[in-house]
Amino acid sequence: MLQEIKEYRQELMGLATLMIYLGHTVFYGPEYVNYGFMNDFITLGYAGVDIFLFLSGFGLFFSISKNSRSLFYNHRLHRLLPSIVGIWVLFVVVNIDCFSFGTLIYPARMMINGGYWYIGFIVIAYLCYPYLYSFSKDKNGWLLLLGFILFSFVLLTPFLYQGTAVSSNAKVCIVTRIPIFVMGMLYAMGKMDILNNVFF
Hints:
globular; 10 helices
């Protein structure tokens, strides 16, 4: 199974992306897009986020295990920067008629308290990953548990001070997705049994 996931990871990520896209089309209710009897099924597309994060944790293991930390960060920067800049430019262009300083910083705020929470999450996750990977080498799992707690705290900190209803949704998304991201890494390492040492 591990080899098959590794071989078809890009295809699985493509499927997860399609699921997320379709899920978001019904996010605001049937008055926006109505698939009729398929609405409930398409809403399950949010599971695509879980698949994507599992595969991210999975794939990052292979990157960090064969590259230096600086090269790992260099690869992540080249992967993330075009998307972040693209979103920023598109947002500013769409809102050019009411352009202000608020318009310029709005995407950054949304990465913390709203609809772009995933980008903020993945940037912080990428920054922390090499350190979490170091913790995961502990055979007993207790160091990994400590690393997981620290990793979770660092990931959640930017999102905790927000008080809006949207940010509450982002907090739920993040809290429930952190373990999935970590399990992707453990599965790639063949260390899923390490959870038994810690929790059972």
